[in-house]
Design brief:
This protein has about 180 residues and is mainly alpha-helical. The chain has two domains: about 5-65, no CATH class; about 65-175. About 70% of the residues lie in helices and about 0% in strands. It binds zinc ion. The site of zinc ion has 7 residues, from helix 1 and helix 3.
Length: about 180
């Protein structure tokens, strides 16, 4: 024999489970908020999930102050270096595109909640690198080489593409 209240509890659990993130960040309407608040009194797995998510949310909020964001001076210097590094090798339209990307990243940094900034930056960097790799491979495949600056014979050579990854001077290892 099945208790019919089991089934309705199961349905409610599923619904509550799906809206838990909005319960935690406080954006549910009052009806749904009430539903979740009542449900987690009876459901241990939902109560545990709420506690887990709340501790993550707290950790993220407290880490916010320590998040590194590039200063205008850094960006200006980075722009300069991009310009200088690309004058020899890259065609004009590549230089402009690189500037656009940096400008876009900068705007995202200003507008996006810090939680997402690094995911966004990493994603953007990955897209830039992949796009660059595909385009450059097609045009300069025989010359495309990876080298580190510590390689003995490295240095700008005409006809070769150089991809430089530059970190800010004051960035920590963790960042
Ligand atoms: Zn539940």
């Amino acid at each position: 024999m099945r208790d019919p209240s089991d089934e309705s509890h199961g349905n409610q659990h599923q619904k509550v489970w799906e809206i838990l993130p909005w319960y935690i960040n406080g954006t549910l309407d009052s009806h749904e908020h009430e539903l979740v608040a009542r449900h987690i009194l009876r459901c241990q797995s939902c109560a545990d999930e709420v506690a887990r998510c709340q501790s993550i949310a707290t950790a993220v909020r407290s880490a916010k102050e320590g998040v590194w964001t590039p200063s205008p001076e850094h960006l200006a210097r980075l722009m300069e270096r991009v310009d200088r590094a690309s004058t020899s090798a890259a065609p004009e339209h590549w230089r402009i595109r690189v500037r656009e990307w940096i400008e876009k990243i900068r705007l995202h940094f200003q507008e996006t909640p810090s939680l997402f900034r690094w995911a966004l930056a990493a994603q953007t960097a990955a897209i830039v690198l992949l796009t660059a790799a595909i385009v450059w491979q097609a045009s300069v495949a025989p010359y495309l080489l990876y080298r580190t600056l510590s390689d003995a014979a490295s240095g700008p050579e005409p006809g070769r593409v150089h991809l430089q990854v530059v970190f800010a001077d004051d960035i920590t290892e963790r960042e």
